[in-house]
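Batch manifest, entry 17 of 40.
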Amino acid sequence: MKFLILLLLVVSLGLSPAFAQTEFTLSSSMESYEPGELVAISGVTQSEQIVSIQVKDPTGKTLLVRSITADNSGNYSLEFKIPKTATQGNYIIVASVSIDMIPIIQTITVPVQDKIIETASSSTELGSTEVDDSVCGTGTIMKNGKCVVEESEGGGCLIATATYGSEMAPQVQQLRELRDNQLLNTESGSAFMSTFNNVYYSFSPTIADMERESPIFKEIVKVGLTPMISSLSLMESANSESEVISLGLSVIALNIGMYLGVPAVVVVGIRKKI
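Output type: structure tokens
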């Protein structure tokens, strides 16, 4: 009798909608590619689900970050080009979604190497030293030798866009201009953005989905974001490498004080009164 009840419970869980809707796949059109070739990836998820795509080269650097939306049938696809001057080796493509507020990640690895042509005397490996500025796929542009998101629907700062309702909101444009005009124009800023993107796009789709599902949570995020975005205005005057570093550290220290120091002082003060 106990075995029968357990069996019915397992079957009912297996047929429940929450389990049935967690299908998420990712695949590429070919097993390997050459530098300069077009890469096509596709997969299946929930209908109209936002899918975050990240591409990393063999050294771990992020070459592309893009958010796309699945169609009504749950199908999604993306095309992009491997730069002709790209590092050869295994490229990692990561796709992530948030289903029922649970992050789900799929990863595939695709080798990228020059084509080897065999001759009667020897094997000649074809390479290319030509710099191609048009190596990025639709929706991405080349900046500082990397394919980055071109601002369009579903791209850019996911959390800020979900919080303020539009990519044209002044707060979102401020973040975009700070990234393009200050950070990406210096080596230290570009290095920071590369590391930041690796972390940010691992959780931002989940937060953005939660904001769309809960207006209360959206307002909470807005209250938390507004002081930070205001403090970032200090970076607008940074033009040189040293200014980006010094002002960047100042902004980080200011935000640590606002988000950690002030609450700590308040908690200590309340405890003393108690």
